[in-house]
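Reviewer 2 asked us to include a model.

Predict the structure of this chain.
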Amino acid sequence: MPAPSLLTKRLLLRHWKESDLPLFAKMNSDTRVMEYFPLILSKKESDSLAEKIQKELKEKEYGFWAVEVIGLAPFIGFVGLHYPDFKAPFTPCVEIGWRLAYEQWGKGYAFEAASKVIDYAFNTLNLQELVSFTTVKNKRSRKLMEKLGMTHNPSDDFAHPKLQKNHPLCPHVLYRKRNPHNENISHLPQIIR
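Predicted model (structure tokens):
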């Protein structure tokens, strides 16, 4: 079953369009946006990533939704849920993540969209927990995780398995948020697996 669109006061979280691709490529080649990622992406790599993201939204009830500011900006980045494909002490899990164009930072859009995604994850998908992770140095994302009510326990910190141990972005922090509505919910419902 495809993921639904999600609506907030200012934002539409939706499936991806062909017209999003040039804006996404521009965002993925911006060194400010990609500062805490190992590499900036070429247009081809960016398009390939968008295709994978859209495929997940079509096939599952979740994914990284394209975000638009209603009536103002047709595409500002993505926010959503993902099932990480690497092994770590906290996997399997469902991650909440985001990436917005630099020009859209500081306007509360990431918080607004992520809050809606958390509501969807807990109240529609009935997930018991969400995690979010980033490199230790990414103070901006960490601040957003905390604003979303996510908590950090230093014992959860990890070396990202997709990066070389000596890579400066390898040390990662993990934040968690538990579903406050029902502690007895299955960790990963069938739709997530």
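Residues 6-178 form a domain with the Aminopeptidase fold (CATH 3.40.630.30). The first helix runs from residue 20 to 28. We have added this to the supplementary material.
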